[in-house]
Write a structure and sequence with these properties.
Layout: H1 4-7, E1 11-14, E2 41-46, E3 52-56, H2 68-79, E4 85-87, H3 90-93, E5 107-109, H4 110-120, H5 123-134, H6 137-150, H7 173-184, H8 187-193, E6 197-200, E7 209-212, H9 217-220, E8 224-230, E9 238-245, E10 248-255, H10 260-274, E11 277-281, E12 292-294, E13 298-301, E14 310-316, H11 322-325, E15 328-336, E16 339-348, H12 361-374, H13 381-394
Helix pairs in contact: 2-4, 2-5, 4-5, 5-6
Length: 396
């Protein structure tokens, strides 16, 4: 057993510190070529790692139209109950702009209303959702801004849940990329935005509502799986799209772009071609000189010339710390040019923590609720409480 003093010493070295070698990086261009779009601001992000691969005017706050609804949806999923019936108010019915044509007093499940929000960009749905989840539209906007602060979106401020032009309502390309990467890790959100068409019950007639997704990228680009279109007279054309190829998911953002469909194809192709996602370490890999193993896989998008710049650092926990008590022995951190790009926990090789699922329990909880909501079923309060406790203990 190591002494407390030794446990605080970081083991520093190249990736060869891992006993099992990493996979080989595929051949890509030595230096990514230039990328140009017609947008006033744009950004490209690797979803899993959160690395911004490209940014042009990315920190400039601008009007973002219905890209706002990315935040509306994820806040509603995080704070609402998908099986709840949302009642349409007079304020929601009268909302201008794109609509799913809700009627006064009409009730629809939160889940189905989220489909109307994200596929058809319903401003009436946005208002109804906000009033239901936040108590009032203003209360929901507070939750939106609270989430923006939590995510570190420094160039973002919301004034409404739908994105209609309003002074003081803005975001940036980089912030929207970060928000989208966060939202796409929620499997309920990811399922909704990747849906091309959704039929939902119609309480007024014997035919169903049919919501067809406005996001043309879903049919125009191989691997496309989201996210949201937007337009107002002041913001002009805005688009966030995502796509997954060979296990890597990228998200592209453009604001005020006259040729956004073409630009997004070009941006995504550029990202996949120049920054493939590499598995630097896999779950269960042992660490040379220590009775520990990597607790979860670590992947990062790298250009060819960056592959030799990665260094790892093992930082061991104090035996009296809470993390150590719950089975975590330390963190294996990775750096590129002295910049920390990620970290994963390490556990005892023969310990029980290494056997726990890698997938976030919060994600599993959200997915389970989604499945039950789709079946019009409910989940008990006890199960919900237990899940949240486990999430707090084990989610990294």
């Amino acid at each position: 057993m190591y002494s407390k003093k030794l446990r605080r010493i970081a083991a520093i070295g190249l990736l060869a510190v891992l006993l099992v070698g990493t996979s080989q990086w595929p051949a890509v261009s030595a230096k990514p070529g230039p990328l140009h779009t017609n947008a006033k601001a744009s950004a490209l992000i690797d979803v899993e790692s959160g690395r911004l691969l490209y940014s042009a005017n990315g920190d400039t706050s601008m009007r973002i139209a219905s890209l706002t609804k990315i935040m509306t949806a994820i806040v509603a999923i995080d704070h609402g109950k998908l099986t709840d019936m949302v009642k349409t108010s007079k304020r929601a019915v009268g909302k201008e702009g794109s609509s799913i044509y809700l009627q006064l007093g009409e009730e629809m499940s939160l889940l189905n209303m989220l489909y109307g929000l994200m596929l058809r960009s319903g401003n009436d749905a946005a208002t109804a959702i906000a009033e239901h989840v936040g108590g009032t539209e203003e209360g929901f906007v507070h939750l939106m801004n609270e989430k923006a602060t939590f995510l570190g979106l420094e160039h973002t401020q919301f004034k409404n849940p739908h994105g209609l032009d309003e002074d003081g309502h803005f975001s940036s390309a980089n912030d929207l990329a970060k928000l989208t990467a966060y939202a796409l890790k929620n499997e309920v959100f990811a399922e909704i935005v990747s849906t091309k068409e959704k039929n939902v019950p119609n309480p007024h007639d014997n035919w169903e509502y049919s919501y067809k997704n406005k996001n043309k990228m879903l049919t125009m680009y191989e691997g496309a799986d989201g996210v949201k279109t937007g337009y107002t007279k002041k913001s002009l054309r805005c688009l966030v799209s995502s796509a997954t190829r060979q296990g890597q998911q990228l998200a592209a953002v453009t604001i005020n772009d006259s040729d956004d469909w073409s630009d997004h194809r070009k941006m995504l192709d550029w990202g996949f071609g120049n920054y493939p996602l590499q598995e630097i370490a896999s779950k269960g890999q042992t660490i040379a000189g220590y009775p520990y193993a990597v607790g979860q896989s670590f992947k990062y998008p790298l250009a060819e010339e960056e592959s030799q710049m990665i260094q790892s650092r093992l930082v061991l926990h104090d035996m009296e710390s809470m993390r150590y008590t719950f089975g975590e022995r330390g963190m294996l951190e990775w750096y590129m040019n002295e910049y920390r790009i990620g970290a994963v926990p390490v556990y005892d090789v023969a310990g029980s923590r290494l056997q726990l699922p890698t997938k976030s329990l919060h994600v599993m909880q959200s997915l389970e609720e989604f499945k039950k909501a789709s079946a019009n079923d409910d989940r008990g309060k006890l199960a919900e409480s237990i899940s949240k406790v486990l999430d707090a203990l084990f989610d990294h």
